[in-house]
Design goal:
Shape: elongated
Radius of gyration: 47 Å
Strand order of the largest sheet: 38-45-41-42-43-40-39-44
Helix content: under 10%
Strand content: 35-45%
Amino acid sequence: MAESPVNGVGTTLASSITNSATSVSLTSATGFTNAQYHCLISDGTNYEIVLATALSGTTLTITRAVESYNGVQTALAFASGSTINVVPSVASVVGLIEGQPYLTVTGVGGATTATRYVGGTSQGPPATGTFTKGDWIVDLTGTIWVCTVSGTVGSWVPTIGSSLVTKSASYSAAAGDFVIFTGSTTGQTITLPTVTQNGLVFQIKNLATVPVSIQAPTTTPVTTALSISGTQYVGGVATFSVPANTAYTFAYSPSAVSPNVWYCFVTTDLGQMGGTLPAARGGTGTTTSTGTGSVVLNYQPSILGPSITVPTMTSPTITNAAGSTYPGNASFATGSGGVVSVIAPTGQAVTTTLTLPLITTSPDTLVALAAAQTLTNKTLTTPVITGPYESVGISATALSGSVAASIAIATDAVYYYTANPTATWALNITNAPTTTGQSATVAILVNNGATAYLPSNITVNGTQASQTASITAIAGNTTQVTYTASNSYVAGQQVTVTGATTGTFNGTFTVVSATSSQFVVANTAVGASSTASAVSLPTQAQTTNSITSYYQSGTAWASADASTLDVYTITVICTGSSAWTLLLGLTKF
């Protein structure tokens, strides 16, 4: 219970008390209250401090000998007429101080701005509550924190240089934080402290196996940015990625004009360091010189990707196929047909010439016999190829009316769609050969579900190989729907209709009958609609937009195979400018 003392209150005992009595009878109860306070009982020789806990009429309930008086803390007997007075004691003063939520100090001399000691935390500044600028706390790590901006939670800075914290996810750092990041999830961001303290230091060490982003805060009164190797990353606009196992140190500099800047002073990130790392310390040992003037290279240098124009070598050692060496001077000369000749020193004959391709438009690279290299636009005549591999493009996305099979022949030779199609799907072939007499073959694997779907149409390099029709009118009579459109469809052919305002007129249907101006499908839809579009697979030997299609066994595809794997094998032969022949096969597995 909080202490409630009063000043100048006292009286005498109306009757004597023993050393075990727990209440006294007061001659007068004036000024005494039904609260908790300390009293001193005295007969002029003996003294005892008691604690008053309750008052009823003139009867005061007390706890005996609660504190020592002049070194004596013993309950005593007192005669009637002994004095009893309300007094401040050591315990009452301490109780008054400890009962306050904060301690305000008004200061002396030139330090009269009031501050408040408002308590402590286990670590770091308070995370809840409302505070006033100048409030301060002490956490259990021994760090003193001072509130520099009033408000809910407030803004706090430590009076010591740093506080080490370990984080594994996105986090807004406090002033003085040295952050050790240990997370394993990418996409995490550490926001630097929101401060106004000049020279405040922030450090981060990324001990994770993934990078972590850092950014300047966006809640300061003015814009704040990170400055790393001369590049600024403005808070709320850009972040910077700290690679795994690197560290960065920043110092804060407020500015009279935007932005305030966190300057990077030290880093272990080699990608942000200037100068050249010596080879003895892990450097490459290469020079960035362009060769202007006289550049002296070390003994037996490694020259990477040089551009050499009619060079002269001084005192080289030239070794022929027989192993004989020829010291002296040598130079290179170019002749017709791409022949490069080595001119040997005087008195030495060169019996071998090195023939290179004559290059007039772009640099080229010689092919090494044992190295792994990529050859582009090369013609191989009667090659013997051992153990080749074909790349397979695997997709778990279900084919549908909105998801086409995009077949880039130059990327993969085999495409595998593992998810069950949900509707007819477009087959779009790109990177088809454009030089007459060239062909390419691709295999497309489709994992059908209980309902199997064929392609709705085929395009080659963006050109339709399928029959399309523009529908101008639609009418349904509960058993059939008639579509008015110029077309070349035949009975039994599958047609996919899209774009009708009445949804039941859209879908994939089998043509019942057709004329050049209309076609009829089996459909229970009723009513009428206006425009729509239709598309179908090409028929056997049909030519559309200079693309001729032939089906295996001479019959166009009628249906796909349910609950199994269908393999479409397509050979594309270029027969002229933007003209192709397609060989179409479908096999059930």
